[in-house]
Amino acid sequence: MPSLSVFFPAYNDAGTIASLVISAVQVAGTLTPDFEVIVINDGSQDDTPHILEELARVYPNRVRIVHHPKNRGYGGALRSGFATATKDLVFYTDGDAQYDPAEMVLLWQQLRDDVDWVNGWKISRSDPMHRIIIGRIYHHTVKLLFGLKVRDVDCDFRLMRRRIFEVVRLEKDSGVICLEMMKKFQDAGFRVAETPVHHYHRAHGQSQFFNFPRIFRTVVDVFKLWWALVIRREHLKTGARA
């Protein structure tokens, strides 16, 4: 039975992170006896660090915490999580509890021998209408620009084989790391399966993305990434890692 690393990037998620970690420990234990749960505290300024230290004390052999002294951005937190994971399979989702870690079971069931990674797709997006509209525009735009074949490009609920990162190198520190990930996985020939998952209203905190300065920076980052991966295609050049 394969081993499993579960990790959460967390930034000011004091209201949700404890329940997510406890749920992850319980669910991962039903899938495999060899698992770890990792939380990347990305420079949180609320009580998140103290809660995480208590969780590590309660689950000393299961829960590990990585503290970033300063916020590195969503991509920086994900790259830190992938670098810290030690098991055969790696699952991640966000620390804001808009996805249920218990549904990693659904992804696990799809991971057959001919599948390298499993991508969730939202059954219904539980967000305010302006976020739903912006999300749909983003989804269709980047799917066309990057030629992505996955059903949902904006569902941060994924399970993958860790050996993928022997081939693919992720570089982005911003939220466009998810585009970078899916494009590089696809171009490297890794095989994907997809499964529906639930998406819930945000119960605590607020989104770090949906403000105009961040949206503008994201648009710039998306087109820089498009130029690098679609036009120049340097990640596919002979001898270069993806």
Count of the domains: 1
Total count of strands: 7
CATH classification class: Alpha Beta
CATH topology: Spore Coat Polysaccharide Biosynthesis Protein SpsA, Chain A
Instruction: Return the structural class.
Output: alpha/beta
Low-confidence stretches: none
Order of helices and strands: EHEHEHEHEHEHEH
The main β sheet shows up as:
7 strands, mixed
How much strand?
Answer: 15-25%
Radius of gyration: 17 Å
Order of neighbouring strands in the sheet with most strands: 3-2-1-4-6-5-7
- Helix run count: 7
Give helix % range: 25-40%
Known CATH architecture: Alpha-Beta Complex
Mean pLDDT: 93
Please give the alpha-carbon distance between the first and last residues: 28 Å
The CATH homology group name: Spore Coat Polysaccharide Biosynthesis Protein SpsA, Chain A
Shape: globular
Describe it.
This protein has 242 residues and is of the alpha/beta class. It has a single domain, classed as Spore Coat Polysaccharide Biosynthesis Protein SpsA, Chain A. The protein contains 7 helices and 7 strands. A 7-stranded mixed beta sheet has the order 3-2-1-4-6-5-7, sandwiched between helices. Helix 2 links the parallel strand 2 and strand 3. Helix 1 packs parallel to helix 2. The radius of gyration is 17 Å and the shape is globular. The two termini are 28 Å apart. 36% of the residues are buried. The mean pLDDT is 93.
